[in-house]
Amino acid sequence: MKPRVLIVMENIIVGEDIKNTLNRFGYEVLGVFKRIDDAIKISRELNPDVAVIDGDIEGRISGIEAGQIINQINIPVIFLNSYHHDKIAVDSKQNSSFAYISKPIDEKELYLKIREILG
Predict the structure, then answer these.
(1) Greatest CA separation for the chain
(2) Average pLDDT estimate for 73-99
(3) Geometric angle at alpha carbon 107, from 27 and 81, rounded to 5°
(4) At a CB cut-off of 8 Å and minimum separation 6, what does 98 contact?
(5) How far, in Å, CA of 109 to CA of 88, rounded?
(6) Confidence of residue 36 (pLDDT cuts 50, 70, 90)
(7) Backbone angles phi, psi at 31, to 5 degrees
(8) Domains of the chain
(9) Angle, to 10 degrees, between the axis of helix 63-72 and the axis of helix 36-46?
């Protein structure tokens, strides 16, 4: 069975690009979501193997907060950020179920982070 990935991106076009990349790498993408509430709901319903989340999303719930909620459902999270975010970087080093990748996204780095998290 292919590892299943959930993508949460503020920019849907970038999210679709990541989806296509992950599909080429052999992953099943359960969806690309812009709304954090939808992503949390789908995470609870479908239990993906990993979530890739835009840490730059702001709103009622930030991308960082969404990642923490999804991680509490026992789903590992990879945060994507366009700027250095100290809290994410520290958390990703202290918690093996968090990872951090800077934007622009390097496809190979994303692939390797997912492999690393999934073991």
Answers:
(1) 35
(2) 70
(3) 105
(4) 67, 71, 76, 77, 78, 79, 88, 91, 92
(5) 17
(6) confident
(7) 155, 160
(8) 30-106 (3.40.50.2300)
(9) 10
Residue whose structure tokens are 């949390």:
40
Phi, psi of 51 (to 5 degrees): -120, 135
Which residues have CB under 8 Å from 97's CB, separation 6+? 71, 74, 75, 76, 77, 117
What are the Cα distances from residue 110, in Å, to 22, 59, 113? 9, 25, 5
Phi first, then psi, for residue 49 (nearest 5°) are: -75, -30
C-beta separation of 31 from 6 below 8 A: yes
What mean pLDDT is reported for the chain? 86
* DSSP string covering 40-99: HHHHHHH--SEEEEETT--SSS-HHHHHHHHHHTT--EEEEESS--HHHHHHHHH-TTEE
pTM (2 decimals)? Answer: 0.87
